[in-house]
Structures are given as C-alpha cells and as structure tokens.
Design brief:
By secondary structure, the protein is α/β, with parallel strands linked by helices. It has one domain: 3-Layer(bba) Sandwich (FAD/NAD(P)-binding domain). It is 31% helix and 24% strand. Strand 16 and strand 17 form a beta hairpin. Helix 1 runs parallel beside helix 9, helix 5 crosses helix 9 and helix 5 packs across helix 12. The longest helix is centred in the last third of the chain and has 17 residues. The chain is globular, with a radius of gyration of 21 Å. InterPro entries: FAD-dep_OxRdtase, FAD/NAD-bd_sf. Keywords: Oxidoreductase. GO terms for molecular function: oxidoreductase activity.
C-alpha cells in the first residue's frame, strides 16, 4: 500500500479497535496525517475486537432481527441459559432499543437491511487482503468457509427465508446431510443431522493479534497512537477544534472519526445526534490448547453460539446480555457456553480456560452508522457494527478514508445514515 504524495491534513481517529486501525491505514493511503486515540492498547482484551468469534464473512447478510423473532424473545428471556438476557434493573433503559429491534424484524425492513449488509460486506476480502499483506500477517485470514449445524434433519428448511436472502445476494449456499457433515468436519459429534455450509466465507484465528499487527503497520507508516480516553469536545465554527481527554488535557483536531465502539453514542450525543446504540454484551470462553480437530468456524443454529478454532485453542462465543457499559460481567454466561458446546464434539478435553466479556456496539437494525455528524461537518461516524465488526472493519476503513478525502464512496451510504431510526 502506498500513500498519495499530497498532504491532506490531519485526521484524529477515536478508537483503536478493528474499525479504528483499518481506518487509520486507509487514511494514511489517502495521504492524511493520522492520530489514533484509545485508552486501550490495540489488540488487548479491553477491546471488543479482541473477543470476536473470528468470522470474516463477505456473505454476512442476515440481520439479528428476523421475521418471527417476537415469538422467540419470551422463551429466550425465561431461559437462564438462553442466548438473550436483559438484567431487570436495566430493562427500562434498554426497552426503547428493543422496541426498535422488533420493528426492524418486519419483512420489508429485513430485506432492506440484508441488502445493506451485503453491500458493505461483499468487499471484505478485497479490502482486508492488501492491509494484511502489507502488515505481514497473511496467516490471520483463512478461507475455510462457515458451517451452521442443526440437530434435526429439517433444520435448514426452517430457515428457508434466510437462505433465500443469502442466495438472492449471490452467497453460495450448500445444504448438507449428516453424512456430508461428517465428511466435511469429522471433529463434530453425530448429534447433527443437517447443516448449511457457506464455502466462500473466512475466519481469523486471532482477532486481537490482527488488530495489533494492523496498528503496528499504521504506526510504521507514520500514524501516532495515544493511550487516552476522549470525553468531549471543544467546539469551533464548523465542529470540534479539540478533543478533551480524561484528566484535563486537550488535543487540537482538524477532522475527527468516531469509531469508539459502544461508547460512540455518548460522543455523538455531544454533537447533537441521538443514535440508538446499546452494548450487546457478548461472552466467550477459551479452552486453551483444545485439540478437537475442528477446522471450520461452526455455529450451533439451534443453541445460538459459535465454536471457532483459534491459535491458542477453541473459542466458544455468543449470547447477548443487556446490562449497560458499567455493570460487572457475569461469567456464568461464559460457563454456559462451554456447557452447551461439550456435546458438539467427538473429543473435547477441558484443561485451562479463560473467560471474557466485551461490549458489542449494536444498533437496532444490525447495520452501522457511517455518516457525517449533523452539526459538525468535520466529524465522521463509523460505529455500530454490532456482531459484524471484524467483517466490516476494512471496508468501513476504506469508506471513511474516501469520505474524509471528498471522494466518491465504494458503496451507497444512504442505508447507513445517522437519521434512519
């Protein structure tokens, strides 16, 4: 990757997760001077990107809210080991978001959202590959496909609407029976009777290392990284003239990109935009050194969790908890994932395990906000990717660099506008 020779000015990126480091690299390519501000070290476990299940899937086009979801929500909420938990004290705060989530499950809206997801994600490999090659970590993008397994023979037919959406958007879909599952992924136990295999999808065996390596590459190209928390802005005539840091310091700014994960909503409110953003708190458990033989990221379609082979072992990730940014983690949610995953494999010896919780920045309609701030034209929003942050990171970074440079964007950004809610 080479940068343009004409200096374009300075961009301050708030957030050093996968969106932030990809944005930094693409801004450098456009010739900007780049600063990145985040209290966490890029790639560290304090970031949501660290705990990702690892899917890098250009075919991801199925929103979280699908037709019929309202029928499932009461069952999930009543199940202490189910995929959705809302802490009672937090329910009044989460309720407006949840109502918007249910509104997004109407079929016409689902089809709009699905098209927007595919428009963003279809360039995932195209945008990641040059970054990863330049950073010298090509081993962190593996193209082995993605597998959704069912414990009944008619599982795929129950999701026919979603399969139709995938096919409509050009995603290759294979339906497998029990014998074909065994041939493709012999590590799985014989409890699975059918599956959906998406052969053109990919995975990353260490999302935290990917973020760290992309940050290191940006730093080598001249980006400056600051360990600090942005808490507000000093406003000038056309937007922020400086960002205010926790502790009282200020940093002068020209153009600002907000990709601070689940905390982005607080910053956007200070700029006059009330965007419904919630922390969809996600958990994972890492079984260190687990030798299951699993090769392909595998999703239990019935129990709503993901099993991913990682460099350090097996990662089991999933579920959604609404409790806000400040409530302590409930690591029982991680232990539930391990309990549910045990029957999935022919062999799973559990030794050392680590547990993690992170804050997915979720919008009610499953797609991010990529737009300029209403009252600050020198601020670009790039947040709200929810469960799709690793997938959309590089594409979003490229789009933000085009916005900052005043160039036509690679995709139509109308579906991602801030005022769509």
């Amino acid at each position: 990757m080479t940068s343009t020779s004409t200096p374009r000015g300075k961009v301050t990126v708030i957030g050093a997760g996968i969106i932030g480091v990809c944005t930094a690299n693409y801004l450098l390519e456009q010739g900007f001077a780049v600063e990145v501000v985040d209290p966490a070290l890029p790639g560290s476990e304090e970031q949501c990107s660290f705990g990702n299940a690892g899917g890098i899937c250009p075919g991801s086009c199925i929103p979280n809210a699908m037709p019929g979801v309202l029928r499932n929500v009461p069952k999930w909420l009543m199940d202490p080991e189910g995929p959705l938990i809302v802490r009672l004290a937090y329910l009044p705060h989460a309720l407006p978001w949840l109502l918007r989530f249910l509104a997004a499950s109407r079929r016409p809206r689902v089809e709009e959202i699905s098209a927007a997801m595919r428009s963003l994600h279809r360039y995932t490999f195209e945008c990641y590959e040059p970054l990863i090659k330049a950073a010298g970590c090509e081993d962190l993008l593996q193209k082995r496909g993605q597998l959704f397994v069912h414990e009944t023979a008619d599982g795929p037919s129950k999701g026919a609407y979603g399969l139709g959406l995938r096919r409509e958007h050009g995603v290759k879909v294979d339906i497998l029976d029990a014998d074909e599952i065994r041939q493709l992924e012999p590590a799985l136990a014989p409890i699975f009777k059918s599956a959906v295999y998406l052969p053109e999808q990919g995975q990353c065996p260490n999302p935290g290392r990917l973020v760290a390596r992309l940050a290191e590459h940006a730093a080598r190209q001249g980006a400056r990284f600051f360990r600090a928390k942005v808490i507000g802005f000093d406003m000038g005539a056309s937007g922020p003239s400086a960002v205010r840091l926790e502790g009282g310091d200020r940093m002068p700014v020209e153009t600002v990109v907000i990709c601070a994960g689940a905390r982005s909503g607080e910053l956007a409110r200070q700029l006059g935009d009330r965007i419904p953003l919630e922390s969809e708190r996600g958990y994972h458990i890492m079984v260190k050194g687990a030798d299951t033989g699993l090769r392909i990221q595998t999703i239990s379609a019935d129990r709503k969790f993901v099993a991913s082979p990682m460099e350090d072992g097996l990662r089991i990730a999933g579920n959604v908890e609404f409790a806000g940014l400040r409530a302590p983690a409930n690591m029982h949610r991680a232990d539930v994932l391990l309990k549910q995953a045990r029957p999935m494999f022919r062999k799973l010896e559990v030794g050392e395990v680590t547990r993690w919780m992170g804050h997915r920045p979720g919008t009610p309609d499953s797609i991010p906000v990529i737009d300029r701030a209403s009252r600050a034209r020198n601020v670009i929003y790039a947040f709200g990717h929810g469960h799709q942050g690793l997938i959309g990171g590089a594409v979003t970074g490229k789009i933000v660099s085009q916005l900052a440079a005043g160039l036509p964007t690679a995709i139509d950004l109308a579906p991602f506008r801030k005022d769509r809610f």
